[in-house]
Amino acid sequence: MTFDPLRSLPCSLAALSAIGLSALPAPAAVLIGNTVGNNVVEFDEKTGQFLGEFISPFEGFVSPDSLVYGPDGNLYISSGTTPDTSAIYRFNAKTGALIDRFASGGGLLRPYGLAFGPDDNLYVSSFLSDEILRYDGKTGAFLDVFARRDGSPEGLNGPNGLLFGPDGKLYVTTQGSVAAVNGQPDFSFGFPSQVLCYDITSGLGKVFVPQPAPFPSSFGFVSFLGLAIGPDDGNLYVSDFANGIRRYDFATGQELQVYDTNYTGTTPSSNFIGGLGFGFEKSLYTIGFDIGEPSNPIGTLLKFDVASGIRTLVAANQPALVRPVGLIFRPKFMTTPEPMLTPSLVALALAGLVAARRDRRSHPNS
User: Fold this and answer.
1) DSSP 8-state code for residue 243
2) Is domain 27-336 given the CATH code 2.120.10.30 in the classification?
3) What is the pLDDT of residue 332?
4) How far apart are CA 174 and CA 172, in angstroms?
5) Distance, CA of 248 to CA of 299 (rounded, Å)
6) Fewer CB within 10 Å: C terminus or N terminus of the chain?
7) pLDDT class for 65, splitting at 50, 70, 90?
8) Could you tell me whether strands 195-198 and 185-186 are parallel, antiparallel, or unpaired per DSSP bridges?
9) Which residues, listed in sequence order, are joined to residue 247 by a DSSP beta bridge?
10) Are 286 and 311 in contact (CB under 8 A)?
11) Cβ count within 10 A of residue 143
């Protein structure tokens, strides 16, 4: 049998390509929920390239808000604006396939924040009933009302984002609104937007971060929204829907730094801000949308250097982003590796073929 190195080259390259695909790091991606588009889209974290639709619109999936991973590795998303549509949906985190309508009922109305607690239960902020509801983290069955508005300015007035801190306590952002009987938020009471802290054993809550002064480029109000923990400093990062991100010391609640999210450059800003999170390279990300055209609030993905506060528009004015609010990063093992051969892999394949040919010449009868 005659040995043909050129005929063997594709097989060798294919084998090495398979090795390379498993060895090369997969691209990091960010999933973003569109509250107007009723879908979830995917962008490359580094380049801002639009990667496509991860979850398509379907009946009952209305105005998706928060996105979190559960203990089972699946993706959970809050959805709905009425008692009938308000629910938590569960999806396959790798494929985006719908698994089930995981949790609903118990008076849930316009769910915003989601968080799985150390007690293995799912906590959900019910924005239009001014409550935090608790569901069984495995079955989705409604358990109880964990907390509700008490009528005080320091109470649960318009609950939004949820996060369990390193101390095991539940941190909640409030917008300062009161749920009205017509199912709409009422801001006429003048209650402050704050970050509250709850002990999940006793159920007692207190103000952790009082309302700060509005950002200079805002419309003159504060509306705390998203919560995240810094991967390196362990600080609490809070996004303000009215504009800006603030960093707080988790031990004292002291404000440490602010980040300007006014990417439209107008005063007041013509963009609002949604949730926030940290990418795989530990940069801080948030999303915003331009309110200059209310009928078409196109969104932008922003990135910040945590230390310097330098801002980069990763994906600016993207038509695929329509009033985006929630975001989450896909772990690298969940993304699809790009099929490519590096020069080193090609060189390795060719070197192997040359060595094989020499070996054939030394053993012509083999």
Assistant:
1) S
2) yes
3) 61
4) 6
5) 26
6) N
7) very high
8) unpaired
9) 237, 257
10) no
11) 17
